[in-house]
Amino acid sequence: MRDGLLPAALKGLRDGALRVDAATPASRDRAVDALRAFAILGVVLGHWLVTALVADGGALHAASPLQHMPWLAPISWVFQTLAVFFLVGGHVATRSHASARARGTTYGRWLRGRLSRLFRPVIAVVVLWTVAATALLLLDAPLDTVRTLVKLALSPLWFLLVFAVLTAATPLVARLNPLWPLAVVLHVDLLRFGLGGAPSWLGWVNLAAGWLVPYTLGAAWTRGELDGRRAGLVLFAGGAAATAVLVTWAGYPASMVGVPGEPVSNLNPPTLAAVAFGLAQCGLALLLRDRLRRALRRPLAWAAVAVVNLSAMTIFLWHQTALMATTAVGLPAGRLPGLHTVPDDLAWVVARLGWLPVFALALAVCWTAFRSHEQGTRRAAPRPSRVIRRHRPRRPASKAARGA
């Protein structure tokens, strides 16, 4: 009996993938969905690899292996994929807005639809962590621990706020040349790091300008300006070269994510190095489009991408909670390597890799519990009542039937 379960499960998986593949319109660009899925999963894995909650005297505080092992900075180059998400977001939003205008849909109605899908899953996260933080404080948990946990849990919200602002500005930036926001980032960094004496708040101008660069690249993709391989090659080579110069000779950090204790973060707010690195990522994404389209002709591969896209915000919003839940559940067992210990050697890295499947299982539990907040409840089409069926107009009989 057990021998027959696996073939039956594989057959069910294959049949489900075939149904998803058959239900997908032929006009859908599957590479767009694949790039969005890779961007979300890259952020998730990146956080799981570089975020540590260290147990110290009954309290938890955040740490990073990049703080103790700076030579691991290339990890951030692989998993800091937000630029690709903004590239895809700009492409999808400008295409969606153009389609809405063609149908006569008002801007307000279009924007409400976009933002409701974006923020619908947020409510559950905020409510749960409000209750959890209150309960922890009532149980006399250390204030620093509560602050650390809430900060990690709600940190994805800054990304959604920036993305919502850019989405709302889509009609204004749909034809904006990406060089304009890039010039803003350049001048802000010159004032911050080159001339000195600039107010500290000035760097936060780059929070909008920095992510506007890949977002407007997505709009250029919609206009057909990035269709050839040349555009991808120029972005990839130029962005990579600029990043290397800025890190090697201009003093920018090598890590593309924030590192505790470092005076400058490439991500918070975005620096010129982070934006240049994002250009390289966008160029690589554009170069991979054709290969992704070919690979996603396989039903199983496409079904996996479709599932991630259907729950992209749920995965993004709950992945830190999954990490923290695993950490909390493991606390009674003592300081477990790779989970509660200081991330200061390769042994921690090896142990953390072993915890990744556990984090994924915890995230799957969160996904099962909260995915409906993103996807909404599906209602079956109502069956017509007997009155409607009884009084439904009858079709006139054909000539052949009348003559029979």
Mean pLDDT over all positions:
89
Gross morphology: globular
Number of helices: 21
Strand order of the largest sheet: 1-2
The major beta sheet can be summarized as:
2 strands, antiparallel
Structural class: mainly alpha
Q: Could you estimate the helical fraction of the residues in percent?
A: over 70%
CA gyration radius, whole angstroms: 25 Å
- Give the percentage of residues in beta strands: under 5%
Low-confidence stretches: 378-404
The H/E string reads HHEEHHHHHHHHHHHHHHHHHHH
Strand segment count: 2
Query: How far apart are the first and last residues' alpha carbons, in Å?
Result: 59 Å
Explained architecture:
With 404 residues, the chain is mainly alpha-helical. It is 70% helix and 2% strand. The protein contains 21 helices and two strands. It has helices at residues 2-23, 30-50, 65-68, 74-79, 82-103, 107-119, 122-138, 143-154, 156-168, 170-173, 179-195, 205-222, 229-249, 272-287, 289-295, 299-310, 312-330, 346-370, 372-375, 386-391, 399-403, and strands at residues 52-56, 59-63. Strands 1-2 form a two-stranded antiparallel sheet. A hairpin with a 2-residue loop joins strand 1 and strand 2 (59-63). Helix 2 (30-50) runs antiparallel to helix 5, helix 6 (107-119) runs antiparallel to helix 9 (156-168) and helix 13 packs antiparallel against helix 14 (272-287). The longest helix has 25 residues, at 346-370. The radius of gyration is 25 Å and the shape is globular. The relative contact order is 0.14. Residues 378-404 have low confidence and may be disordered.
